[in-house]
Design goal:
single chain, 116 residues, mainly alpha, two-stranded antiparallel sheet, 53% helix
């Protein structure tokens, strides 16, 4: 059975910093003991390591989001992504949740869709 290594955010950032300094893919690969194909994927195919995509810091906002999701929210799976959805009657509550979610995920806030 083949064992795959999980690369951390630090591994990814070390490679990116070396590449930005002008080091070649082969040299970066050897220095960090990361396969050349993996480094190429990070650069040319924008394949960011799973552990480097998002690692939240514990905060009141994160605790709030998790509590709301457990109570009133759910994940809706599409072909290649998930939507975080919330079923509540209070528009202001949903708007606060959406703004907090945008802050935690470091995304642009989008006005929520009101459905009946």
């Amino acid at each position: 059975m083949k064992v795959y290594r999980l690369y951390t955010y630090e591994d990814y950032m070390k490679a990116i910093k070396l590449l930005n300094k002008g080091e070649g893919i082969t040299i970066v690969s050897k220095k960090l003991n990361i396969p050349k194909s993996t480094v190429k994927g990070w650069i040319y195919e924008y394949k960011v390591p799973w552990l480097a995509r998002w690692s939240p810091e514990p905060s009141k906002e994160l605790a709030y989001l998790l509590g709301v999701l457990i109570g009133d929210g759910y994940l809706h799976f599409h072909a290649y992504h998930y939507d975080i959805e919330l079923e509540v009657k209070d528009y202001e509550f949903a708007e606060t949740f959406s703004k907090t979610l945008a802050k935690i995920l470091d995304k642009r806030y989008r006005k929520i869709k009101e459905t009946r």
